[in-house]
Structure to design on (114 residues):
């Protein structure tokens, strides 16, 4: 169910317009508004879960990662590689409390992150 004050729920139902790069019944990928790499996409489940720790059904992870995989192919970053990041809560630097995967690519990404 959509959470009324959640920006990603609003994006999921089209209330806030975005440039969707890949979409399915259950998941959506759209361009990050503050891109950190030539390719920077946010991948969300349409269903609201605050964080990775709030998912009860592991099938959601299966679907989400399969969707990330499809999105990487669609964006053409699969061969050269990319990074998938899920920030969780305060220390993870999560700023939007709707579970999402960052898909970053199009350049070499340093490790470790800051
Ligand atoms: P996090 O810090 O992991 O919670 O990531 C939230 C991400 O959402 C940040 O990279 C933001 O730039 C991005 N973001 C916030 N609002 C929007 C929006 N309206 N459309 C696209 N990306 C957004
Ligand atoms: Zn939400």
């Amino acid at each position: 169910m959509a959470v009324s004050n959640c920006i990603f729920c609003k994006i999921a139902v089209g209330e806030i317009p975005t440039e969707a790069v890949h979409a399915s019944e259950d998941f959506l990928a759209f361009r990050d508004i503050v891109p950190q790499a030539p390719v920077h996409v946010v991948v969300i489940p349409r269903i609201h879960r605050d964080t990775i720790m709030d998912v009860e059904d592991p099938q959601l992870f299966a679907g989400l990662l399969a969707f990330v995989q499809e999105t990487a192919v669609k964006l053409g970053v699969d061969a050269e590689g990319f990074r998938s990041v899920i920030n969780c809560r305060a220390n993870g630097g999560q700023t939007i409390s709707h579970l999402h995967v960052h898909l970053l690519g199009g350049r070499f990404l340093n490790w470790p992150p800051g």
The radius of gyration is 13 Å.
